[in-house]
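Aim 2 progress. For 1-acyl-sn-glycerol-3-phosphate acyltransferase gamma-like, the working sequence is reproduced below.
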Amino acid sequence: MGVVAWLKSLFILQLLIGFVFVVSGLILNFTQLCTCVLWPINKQLYRKINTRLAYSLWSQLVMLLECWSGTECTLYTEQATVDKFGKEHVIIILNHNYEIDFLCGWTMCERYGVLGSSKVLAKRELLKVPLIGWTWYFLEIVFCTRKWEEDRETVFSGLNRLRDYPEYMWFLLYCEGTRFTEKKHQISMQVAESKGLPKLKYHLLPRTKGFTTTLQCLKGTVKAVYDVTLNFKDKQNPTLLGIVNGKKYKADLSIRRFPVEEIPDDEKECAAWLHKLYQEKDALQEHYEKEGCFPGPTIKPKRRIWTLLNFLCWATLLLSPLINFAWDVFVSGSPLLIIGFMIFLIVASVAVRRLIGVTEVKKTGSSYGNTEAKKEN
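Predicted structure tokens for this construct:
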């Protein structure tokens, strides 16, 4: 193990990075709360400010992926498609197989200037998660329970509210509804067989309602749908904990652009279009399994320095008083102060670990396969 790798593995350094993220996140959340007074006065100004506040938080995670971990992202797509990145409102369809698939998406958002304005159709449980859910709330993220009868009004109103969003946004959809596991895949293919649909090998059957509704509500605003299929070299199974430990991964993303004019307006035809898309995504994954790459030309977008500069600014602001305080505590020799500070470190480490746990596959529960879940399709 080299010196740099050893330093990245040190728990104290990881804890300090987590401290910066959590404390800066709380400061940013409080600032977002204060901006709410702008909503009735100037809604677009509120949105522009919150876009930049969100960037200041999310870019710290992108910094972990790009600078701390050194993970590389390669795009398999045409230059004409890349030329449109960050210049139009789009819907992103991404396969949901990995713990860090959202982070690979975010690094692309950052490189093309839409990280702060990126959106997602998220499960309501995430609204209760500090920093993540709170930031999304101020960004007008659409939360749902995955029960259409309960979600209908909320989803329609939330999506329609985004039609005049001033910043170019990438709206992420996990059409499979939940992260891929073998058990969920077996259940999903039973549903496919019962409905006479072709079976998928690497994906779950897409839930079409979220896609057709999003496209219907945002048509006229959204110009295209980007189909993104993500995989990792050498059959790597990346985790956020691995990123925190400085482990390097190599991500490959196949990206195809579909203008909204090419997608049927009729709900049933649109659903059929989505099913066909997932059959094509499955074929792309099959090609990757055999060849170790996706078909087509490759592009490696350049990293930007802003994520690192943003983190260094927060680290300078927050770590200097923390280190001075820690020094004063230990120099004082007071057992009470030292014990109190150690308890603070333990609580901080547990909080950071809990946030990481939100992304872990084995801890992401789902009702997939239940009678209620099946009704949603």
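The longest helix spans residues 306-332. This observation will guide construct design in the next reporting period.
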